[in-house]
Amino acid sequence: MNSGIASIIADSVSHSYDHVQAIGGVSFSIPEGELFGFIGPDGAGKTTLFRILATLLIPASGKATVKGFDVVKDYKKIRKIIGYMPGRFSLYMDLSVEENLTFYATIFGTTLKENYHLIKDIYSQIEPFRKRLAGDLSGGMKQKLALSCALIHKPAIILLDEPTTGVDAVSRMEFWEMLRRLKESGITILVSTPYMDEAGLCDRVALIQNGKIMKIEQPAQVTAEYPFHLFSVLSTDIYGLLQDLKEYPGNRSVHAFGQAAHMAFGDEGVDKAALQNFLHAKGHTHNIIEEIKPTIEDCFMELMTSPSPSGEGAGG
Questions:
Q1: Furthest CA-CA distance within the chain
Q2: pTM of this structure
Q3: CA–CA dist 206, 200 (Å, integer)
């Protein structure tokens, strides 16, 4: 349960690289103690935004504050109260697990022994390998070490930029369980991810694409606001199926989801028998058509085809 006090505020923040806009006028507010997710594909602007909040990049325009401190004027104060885990593993490969942790603790004027209780639940899983070089760790173990280093100085806020990219499914689940426990301790957590299925693990999410926030809402509310009837269509030829379904009258959108096609219709829904006859005439046999509930990914795809967003999501 968050306190309602704003921990992070962004007001019309923009940034570009060589005239290519990375983020354009994004605004949002994140209360203390919230687990907030930025959900979007590679190139959506997530890393640029996190680097601005971590005081590693100066915004071209707009303003952002972290715990009331300005990300430009008060960067030294902010760096003392945040933990930052970049998308690419950035610890010292030629130092051991223990040496990396000791180094980061020393930077912040503390020791591994003094703050061991802060990282015990996470570090205990890799402590048997504390003498192993960081470069020799698996993806999941590197993830736990990076998170331990980000927490060793007892930050009020942690910024995790795509922390689960490139790790196995079990490590992803373990990592999110660790985040839930950290949230219970009162830490505000910002996490970015390209994995739509991780959206449901956040208190609120911002769906971001092309540097614009399309929506900010609780995950359940995002799917509840999906405006169409959605159907899953299975057939033996997914590529041909997608092309043919796009010709079917009344469809609002057709997208591939694994081996199935997701097809949206308005208030009238769809006559499944008529759709079956249409598919048979196109040479598709053994079809399975069923109405389904939308996922975050369905909502994301729908928002991408709606009118251009203003940059400030609902609920932001």
A1: 73
A2: 0.85
A3: 12
Please state which CATH number belongs to domain 6-223: 3.40.50.300
Long-range own/partner contacts, residues 129-136 (CB < 8 A, 24 or more apart) = 129/97, 130/96, 130/97, 130/98, 131/96, 131/97, 131/98, 132/96, 132/97, 133/93, 133/94, 133/95, 133/96, 134/89, 134/91, 134/92, 134/93, 134/94, 134/95, 134/96, 134/97, 134/100, 135/93, 135/94
Closest residue by Cα to residue 82 from 95, 98, 96, 71: 71
Same fold, 6-223 and 227-293: no
- Reported as a single tens digit per residue, the pLDDT across 20-45 is 899 999 999 999 999 999 999 888 99
The CATH-assigned architecture of domain 227-293 is 2-Layer Sandwich (3.30)
- Considering only CA atoms, which of 69, 78, 315, 108 is closest in space to residue 215? 315
Place of tokens 């997530």: 46
**316 has a pLDDT exceeding 60:** no
Of 280, 291, 297, which is closest to residue 235 (Cα–Cα)? Answer: 280
